[in-house]
Amino acid sequence: MCAMTDLYQPxxxxxxxxxxxxxxxxxxxxxxxxxxxxxxxxxxxxxxxEVKLEQIQRPEDLRLLPVVTKDELRTEQAAHPPFxxxxxxxxxxxxELHPSSGTTGNPVNTIWSERDADYLxxxxxxxxxxxxTRPGDIIQNAFSYGLWVAGxxxxxGARRLGCFVIPIGAQLTNRQVEYLQDPGxxxxxxxxxxxxxxxxxxxEAGVSPDRVPLRLGCFGGEGGTEAPATRAKLERGLGIDAFxxxxxxxxxxxxxxxxxxxxxxxxxxxxxYLEVIDPQTMEPVPEGEVGVxxxxxxxxxxxxxxxxxTNDYARVLNEPCRCGRTHAxxxxxxxxxxxxxxxxxxxKFYPVQVEKVVRAMPELxxxxxxxxxxxxxxxxxxxxxxxxxxxxxxxxxxPAGLEWLAEGLSRRLKEELLVTPEVRLEPFGxxxxxxxxxxxxxxx
Length: 444
What we know:
Largest sheet: 6 strands, mixed
Number of helices: 11
CATH topology of the largest domain: Rossmann fold
Structural class: alpha/beta
Distance between the termini: 50 Å
Number of strands: 20
Radius of gyration: 22 Å
CATH class of the largest domain: Alpha Beta
């Protein structure tokens, strides 16, 4: 167990859960009151649901209020452009605009006030410290800058922590390899897909990971880091300890990460109230069971979310971690996205399960695609997994070898998914590499 002095903010991160609950309730009452007074969006939504704020007498009563979905925010902003009526802080307090990535539809605009930017920098510094970053470290920030929010939040967090930042963003992959060597970055921040691509380029340049000072990396923006096979590839390819990062633009770009114990994502419960909801009953699940994360801002000023439906599956435990932190954590990280669920021949699976299989096979590369053909009513009529095979493993021009590899992949996929998709193998380098969020699932 880590000493309390090993925590960035021990007075917050090791807060007894009884006191943490009191703090949450104090901040929740403030947030609900201001949202009702200042936001027609929330006031009308809660009145339609016939819920009065007096009925919310404790944090658990929050479930009486309806959830907020991303589609709902898009509709609100289309009806009341450009920012909708859930922007609560007065315009004079606005400082930055950060839309969502828009990978699944029109982006949702969110706004940061001065205090929002400050607390997001603070919580990001907290997460970076938790996975081993220390003042003076050289941070190679390969998250995208600009409108996508993770690059900016990590930049602010690294400055808050007292680090030296290389703001390269998700670009110039050959330059990424150069910076790993000179000045010699010690911490890499990126999506898992881009980090694996950087590892590929490092190997192509003939640079052994033990020749660069990089010691750790934290990877978010998409799932995968907590999948054992992906973590192993990241750690082996870059010579590091690899950690999982989580965030989303509507809540906060980098507000949950693993600690050195690697026992799940640590949540910042002093700033966010978490619920885990059964999507069928819309009721909370027992502690430790899997459901969809629903998150409420406790201190956000400009665009607060109250019961935001993240679409992400996770389990949440309240027991303290061996590191000494008392805030809730999610072993295994994000387990899948509700809208990424594939139902094929009666079996249900998520892309991360395919990733687990593909990246555990040394003959295959890191990239893969899941091609879904949908017929009438959205029924999946065909499912094909496309993967790359490495050159120089006795497969090039050897149909028998490729057939053997495809059969092995099919067998492992059936064991993991309980269904057998079609398999297609392509030469290494065929599939597109992503510097942003890799799109693994294609529905046609």
